[in-house]
Design brief:
Aspartate Aminotransferase, domain 2; alpha/beta; three-stranded antiparallel β-sheet; 42% helix; Aspartate Aminotransferase, domain 1; 372 residues; binds pyridoxal-5'-phosphate; globular
Length: 372
Amino acid sequence: MQFIDLAAQQARIRDRLDARIASVLDHGKYIMGPEVRELEEKLAAFCGAKHCIACANGTDALQLALMALGIRTGDAVFVPSFTFAATAEVVPCMGATPVFVDIDPTTYNMDPASLDRAIAHARELGLRPAVVVPVDLFGLPADYPALQAIANDEGLSLIGDSAQGFGGMINAQMTGTFADITTTSFFPAKPLGCYGDGGALFTDDAETAALLDSLRIHGKSTEKYDNVRIGMNSRLDTLQAAILIEKLAIYDDEIKARQRVAEAYTAALYDCFVTPHVPEGYRSIWAQYTLGAEDGAARDRIMNSLKAKKIPTVVYYPRPLHTQGAYVEFPRDPAGLPASEAAARRVFSIPMHPYQSVDDRSRVIAALTIES
Ligand SMILES: *Cc1c(COP(=O)(O)O)cnc(C)c1O
């Protein structure tokens, strides 16, 4: 059994992928070929954002967003601790200070009350609160209405880290449109992944979009060898764009299939585990289906027992960032981050992808119900 079955997806669209790849080999425009623009237009249309700028990966997307907002030394950037390292990593890269915020224990997403405390603490430390970076963890959109209200009150910008959440919704609105700038990743294992590294940014602001377009290509102006600012080399390969165009064509269908898997899991497991909480009006795209065990010992026992039955499970994330060597010195919510620490001890993710067979699903559920 696979944790994520990328081969099943590939088999479904292999002919179309082959044709798209062959077409790139024929025209030979490997850098910024026509597929890049085509993909950007399709991604923007998919989520309802006005502009999409593709780039080399989801980490660069976050850094490009910080660059576009002019983030520098002395700025505080508020990030959750219970996330992948890239969310925080790009902040010191810009000379700024990440300030860690706790999560809501039911959604695993940034806790607005903790953000309030972290902002006040950053001011006490003499930092300038500048940006909030909520993460759409496991595919569930962050609490953008509450976080946006705080950002407005405090005069902060919002960058949505939707590396796991592209396609998630709150009411009729999709990720890509909630924050000033939204970033995503096309790492192969993400819900919308390519066959290598890739990423993208979304914004409704034409000026920001033009700035991001310049920053991803060495700070270019409209003339190629007139660089007007310090940028990066962070383009999406034409081949990856070509692959993503075909994957995006079936993405909506795959999100629905993920939803069916999640519903079956929750119906079978809500009695025995802490099953994922999706607030009213929200749609998760189920980048992960994550369960909470009673405690760390129970989690170890359950994961070992599933491993013996060749059922893969993974812990996202075993250590919150504020406890990791590279990040221990950075400031955090002065009330501590108890929800992040508890989640790191208790959660584990089980096989989740759009092509899961009913048979595999039954095996996962049976193994878990025996263990609980
Ligand atoms: C995967 C991920 C990233 C980084 O994306 P890459 O394309 O691997 O650079 C950033 N943030 C979160 C939350 C992620 O899950």
